[in-house]
């Protein structure tokens, strides 16, 4: 090779090396940029994962708005999970087909509507959230502020939540809320919703309590609705024919019947029941004894001198019973076609009265008697021990201020009746003879000589928690018809008022809806 060509070759080699080095440097720079981008993306993903797992996004992104207020997925999750938990509890008692081990989105709730359980729970959640929100916003516009009693209720509920958390398997409030309502619902979210719910409920209850009606208004309402408010005393027999789908042959084997055989037997059964009903009707017209006829004809049901308020009289002969001029001893035979059953009623009119029975308010403290788990009733010794405790509590109250307020405080501390204890033992509605309480309780509360401030001790052997009631008589209330009329008017007016508030509030779904699960 010549010297000039060798120099040219080395020069070209040098250029190639420089170009290669430049390419390598450019590639390295590209790689560094890619690695930086990858690192930034990874960091952002890590940050997003932490933020997502913390529930911050779900607690800040709007899921719905109601009027002027915005609610996150965490708020909606609380209501959704409340509906979910209720259905799960119903399923545990065999009262629902919901399966909590399967996604709610994959379970059909209504084939006719094409909805899943997720749809159902979400509908319930949205309706609940809207009601409380609309009512709380209306309260604010009206200048309503939660009073001391309401604030104490909030504080008490939060205190109970903490106690429950510490004494349960969860060990903390956050874990308890997560276990019951999902990861998004923090203590702050829970308290915020609690305050709104208590405010809304207190405001609504206050409005209901403010609705008053004069005696003239109540009398006018009664005259327009006495068919529903009067009490009807009726005696009646029930003869029921029903469809039979199978029979038993001579060998004791079950034989399924054809539709034609089923119909033939059904018609024969109907004819037999009709004949019995007609014979009983004729016998009653002749003055036969009701119970003797019951024993002779063995009807599906027999009810002598049963008293019912007009709105609950069996509809199959209600119109007949309410006809003007109906007299004691009047008889009728009516029929009801139930499809797979057919019923004949033989009814006798006994009486119709406006219910002037007294009603009263009482407070009570239920002192539970210890009871062995396998026993139907406490022993005499267990009843005696509970009675002694009740007497001691009453004596201690009598030795103190002996006021209605101090009795209420004693009920809060000692009553085993959880439904009334928090309200100082005060029953939520007046006691009537139809209230369904055990007889000693009702008899004491409605004794004609009862006066405000009276106390006593009565035994309870009939309810699930047995023992003794320490009774405190508050006051007499209106007769039953007037109490029912006032409550009905109040309920109708309240419903119209609350519906107007809720319907006026606009609920708008937002992107955060998708976070609820």
- Model regions low in confidence, pLDDT < 50 over at least 5 residues: 7-11, 33-54
Biggest sheet strand line-up: 8-5-10-9
Q: What does the main sheet amount to?
A: 4 strands, antiparallel
Radius of gyration: 37 Å
Helix content: 40-55%
Beta percentage is: 15-25%
How many discrete structural domains? 4
The assigned structural class equals alpha+beta
Overall shape: it is globular
Q: What is the typical, i.e. mean, pLDDT?
A: 88
Q: Helix-strand pattern, N to C?
A: HHEEHEEHHHHHEEEHHEHEEEHHHHEEHE
Number of discrete helical segments: 16
Number of strands: 14
Measured between the Cα atoms of the first and last residue, the distance is: 82 Å
Please provide a brief summary of the model.
This protein has about 525 residues and is α+β, with helices and mostly antiparallel strands. The protein contains 16 helices and 14 strands.
Account of the protein in words:
The chain has helices at 3-54, 56-60, 73-92, 117-141, 148-167, 173-181, 187-210, 215-229, 259-285, 290-297, 315-322, 380-398, 404-414, 418-421, 439-445, 480-504, and strands at 62-66, 69-72, 108-110, 115-116, 231-242, 246-248, 254-256, 301-309, 331-337, 341-353, 359-368, 455-460, 467-477, 507-509. The radius of gyration is 37 Å and the shape is globular. With 517 residues, the chain is α+β, with helices and mostly antiparallel strands. Strand 1 and strand 2 (69-72) form a beta hairpin. The relative contact order is 0.10. It folds into four domains: 3-54; 63-212, no CATH class; 233-353; 359-478, Chitinase A, domain 3, CATH 3.10.50. Strands 8-5-10-9 form a four-stranded antiparallel beta sheet, sandwiched between helices. The protein has a three-stranded antiparallel beta sheet with strand order 2-1-14. A three-stranded antiparallel beta sheet has the order 11-13-12. It contains 16 helices and 14 strands.
């Amino acid at each position: 090779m010549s010297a000039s060509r060798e120099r040219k070759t080395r020069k070209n080699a040098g250029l190639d090396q420089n170009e290669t080095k430049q390419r390598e440097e450019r590639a390295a720079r590209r790689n560094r940029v890619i690695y930086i981008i990858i690192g930034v993306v990874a960091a952002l993903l890590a940050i997003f994962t932490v933020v997502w797992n913390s529930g911050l996004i779900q607690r800040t992104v709007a899921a719905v708005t109601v009027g002027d207020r915005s609610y996150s997925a965490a708020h909606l999750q609380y209501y959704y999970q409340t509906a979910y938990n209720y259905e799960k509890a119903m399923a545990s008692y065999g009262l629902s087909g919901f399966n909590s081990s399967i996604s709610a989105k994959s379970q059909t709730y209504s084939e006719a509507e094409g909805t899943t359980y997720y749809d159902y729970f979400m509908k319930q959640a949205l309706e609940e959230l809207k009601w409380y929100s609309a009512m709380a916003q209306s309260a604010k516009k009206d200048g309503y502020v939660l009073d001391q009693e309401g604030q104490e209720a909030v504080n008490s509920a939060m205190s109970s939540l903490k106690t429950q958390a510490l004494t349960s398997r969860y060990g903390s409030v956050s874990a308890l809320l997560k276990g019951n309502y999902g990861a998004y619902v923090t203590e702050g979210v829970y308290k915020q919703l609690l305050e709104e719910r208590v405010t809304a409920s207190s405001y609504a209850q206050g409005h209901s309590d403010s609705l008053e009606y004069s005696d003239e208004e109540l009398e006018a309402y009664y005259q327009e609705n006495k068919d529903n408010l009067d009490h009807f005393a009726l005696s009646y027999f029930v003869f029921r024919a029903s469809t039979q789908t199978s029979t038993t042959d001579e060998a004791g084997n079950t034989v399924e019947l054809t539709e034609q055989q089923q119909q033939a037997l059904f018609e024969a059964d109907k004819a037999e029941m009709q004949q019995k009903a007609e014979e009983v009707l004729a016998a009653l017209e002749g003055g036969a004894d009701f119970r003797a006829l019951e024993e002779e004809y063995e009807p599906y049901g027999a009810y002598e001198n049963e008293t019912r308020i007009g709105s609950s009289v069996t509809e199959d002969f209600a119109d007949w019973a309410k006809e003007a001029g109906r007299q004691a001893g009047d008889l009728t035979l009516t029929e009801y076609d139930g499809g797979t059953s057919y019923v004949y009623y033989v009814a006798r009119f006994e009486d119709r009265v406006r219910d002037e029975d007294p009603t009263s308010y009482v407070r009570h403290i239920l002192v539970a008697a210890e009871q062995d788990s396998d026993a139907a009733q406490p022993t005499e010794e267990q009843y005696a021990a509970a009675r002694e405790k009740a007497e001691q509590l009453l004596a201690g109250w009598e030795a103190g201020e002996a006021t209605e307020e101090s009795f209420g405080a004693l009920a809060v501390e000692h009553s085993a009746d959880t439904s009334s204890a928090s309200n100082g033992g005060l029953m939520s509605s007046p006691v009537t003879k139809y209230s369904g309480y055990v007889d000693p309780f009702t008899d004491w509360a409605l004794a004609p000589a009862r006066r405000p401030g009276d106390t006593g001790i009565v035994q309870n052997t009939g309810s699930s928690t047995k023992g003794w009631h320490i009774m405190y008589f508050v006051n007499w209330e209106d007769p039953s018809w007037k109490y029912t009329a006032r409550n009905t008017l109040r309920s109708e007016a309240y419903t119209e008022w609350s519906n107007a508030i809720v319907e006026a509030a606009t609920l708008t779904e937002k992107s955060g809806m998708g976070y609820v699960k």
